[in-house]
Amino acid sequence: MTPLHALQALAVMAIWGFNFVIAKLVMAELSPLLLMALRFGLVALVLLPFARVPWGSFRPLLAYAVVMGGLHFPLVFSGVKGIGASTGSIVIQLQVPFASLLAMLFFKDRLGWRRALGMAVSFSGVAVIAGVPQDNLSLPHVFMVVAAALAFAFSNIQLKWLGNVDWKTLNAYMALFAVPQLLGLSLLLEQDQLQQIRAMSGQAMLCLLYLSLMATIVAYAFWYPLVKRYDVNQTIPFLMLVPLFGVGGGVALLGEPVTWQLVVGGLLTVGGVGVIILRRPRYTPGRSTT
């Protein structure tokens, strides 16, 4: 990989890593489901003019949007509402062991003892983070992020079933189909949506633009060409840097404490994920654009 492309990959990891920090900032003003509805409304507006009409793929795309828009994003952002950005950026990494388990189930991918060990280490890391009472940690919210990781892992199975759909079409129509689901959930579970929108500060608007444009559109525009150009073992290991930016951003920008549970649990989780990734399974999980 050229130095320029390595910097490009590093920029994507930084964008994705700061997602949780940005989410914590904007959720001080917007409720999670409303935030996601606004985010994907903007994504759809920007991408739809450049996306192909997915003739013959509307049904699987709708199913994909149900998992991502109806489960993954509501769970992960509602979960992050009650935990630190640092913790969220680490716990969501369970998407990798979940993806390997689902690959074994759906595609008969052989697990092997090393990847099984990596899974056990990853889950033990999250157990360390969640198992000791902490002032800024809500266990139900941790489980929401764990469930979001499982939903995202299943969405990667759906991508295999979808076949060759370009990233602009995938994100544009996922966003389009997700918006009514998120709006419906917001109307059912949240309140004062119009008041929240009217009262948005400039900071909240910038955060919303970051989540919509940077994390969903720019990051994929940078990442997708690298995935197509380079081997899996050259690109996927970069994903292990995402928690580094998430934790660093949480500590530096939000003043989150660096506890021993976070350090030990984070090292175990990321280390286990690294074992799974570096074993280069036949089925390789993608990456959440959370």
Describe this structure in words.
- The protein is mostly helical and 290 residues long.
- The chain has one domain.
- It is built from 14 helices and no strands.
- It starts with a helix and ends in a 12-residue tail after the last helix.
- The mean pLDDT is 86.
Could you provide a short overview of the structure?
By secondary structure, the chain is mostly helical. Helix content is 75%, strand content 0%.
* Secondary-structure element order, N to C: HHHHHHHHHHHHHH
Radius of gyration: 18 Å
Mean pLDDT, nearest integer?
86
Overall, the morphology is globular
- Uncertain regions spanning at least 5 consecutive residues: none
The biggest sheet, with number of strands, parallel, antiparallel or mixed sense and barrel status, is: none
Number of helices: 14
Distance between the termini: 26 Å
Share in helix: over 70%
Structure classification: mainly alpha
List how many beta strands DSSP finds.
0
Q: Report the β-strand fraction as a percent range.
A: under 5%
Domain tally: 1
